[in-house]
Design brief:
Rossmann fold; about 260 residues; alpha/beta; 5-stranded parallel beta sheet; 2 domains; 5 strands; elongated; 11 helices
Length: about 260
Amino acid sequence: MDLSDLRTRLGAGKLFHAYIVTGGNAETRESAGQLIARAAVCAAPSGAPCGVCRDCVKALRGVHPDIETVDRTAREHTVDSLREVRSRVAVVPNEAARSVFLIRDADAMNVPAQNAMLKIFEEPPAHAVFVLLAENPQRLLETVRSRCETVNLTPAPTRAQSETDDAARAVIDALSRRDDLMLIRALLPVDKLNRETVPAFLESLRRQAVDAFAAGKLTEDTVERLSGTLDKADKMTAVNVSAVHIAAWMLSSLCSEA
């Protein structure tokens, strides 16, 4: 499954209470986890994540109060740290309908830590969604794996990822400079991408837009406009619209903002 497939599934189907995201690489797993988190807090009645509602915009900027990221502070996640997470699960969301707990390196949870979370996975509060990022999901207990929906990502070639990141960086640079000619030149190489690399390019644009906004290079209005443009482009990839047409549509949508 690639990121485009995951977005389509999230927009069309029921959201599960717990996911194990595996496969791909650390970067694609993080992107998939953030995509699930945005879908969970999205306020749109369908097609989540919509990318334009208040919750989606906050999630994209990394400031949504109902999305909590759990990082390990040592070699492994300990039972004490996961008990702290478990205690916060009972708290109702601040703004969205759901709270999301994204656990990085979930396969580094030791057995007591996994057992501490097992009861929550078995009987989760209606408002809680868990996203476990795991390079080696076999390290998780079978009782944990059986209570989660597994998202197995297809790894993108390293060279292709580098090319898509470079292409996305050129687009962000053009938007930050508000230069139409630069934007045209930045989007020209997009028509050479294929079905596998277009979704990676779009997701790279999302990540880099957040970084550029945080660095003061993009305005909030530009980030929101870009988010809506990317959501439309995602839908175009789902119905096999060619990269040429996607690039042309993105240019017409973004040029007035450059």
